[in-house]
Amino acid sequence: MKVVPTSSLDTSNFSVELQGKDCGSPGVSLILVDAAPGRGPSLHTHDYAEVMIIQEGTATFTDGITETEVGAGSVVIVGAGEPHAFTNTGDGPLGQIDIHVADAFATDWL
């Protein structure tokens, strides 16, 4: 077992990133999102699946064609190679956990 305090991770963006390869957790990496209204990543893909658990706030997700609004209690599942992006469209913070099924992040920005 390994405990990694989030205070020891880079928080320079709107999220905290933890790559499995850096902490002895092969096969999974995490992003702890804390995004202000209007923030979020632009359209991108990964060559692995991603699962996003919305814990707080409201976000609009898109695959580049369709937009879907989700809120706390929702789980968004994105398959390998599927384009996706999200924006905090609520009035308060967006808190979510993004689980990347990979040892390290590999993002292709579209």
What are the defining features of this structure?
single chain; mainly beta; Jelly Rolls; 5-stranded antiparallel β-sheet; 3-stranded antiparallel β-sheet; 10 strands; 43% strand
Task: Write a short abstract of this structure.
The chain is mainly beta. The chain has one helix spanning 20-23; strands spanning 15-18, 29-35, 44-45, 50-56, 58-62, 67-71, 75-78, 85-88, 94-100, 108-109.
Please describe what this structure looks like:
This protein is mainly beta and about 110 residues long. It has a single domain, classed as Sandwich (Jelly Rolls), CATH 2.60.120.10. About 5% of the residues lie in helices and about 45% in strands. It contains one helix and ten strands. The chain has one helix at about 20-25; strands spanning about 15-20, 30-35, 45, 50-55, 60, 65-70, 75-80, 85-90, 95-100, 110. The strands form three sheets. It has a five-stranded antiparallel sheet. A hairpin with a 4-residue loop joins strand 5 and strand 6. The longest helix has 4 residues, at about 20-25.
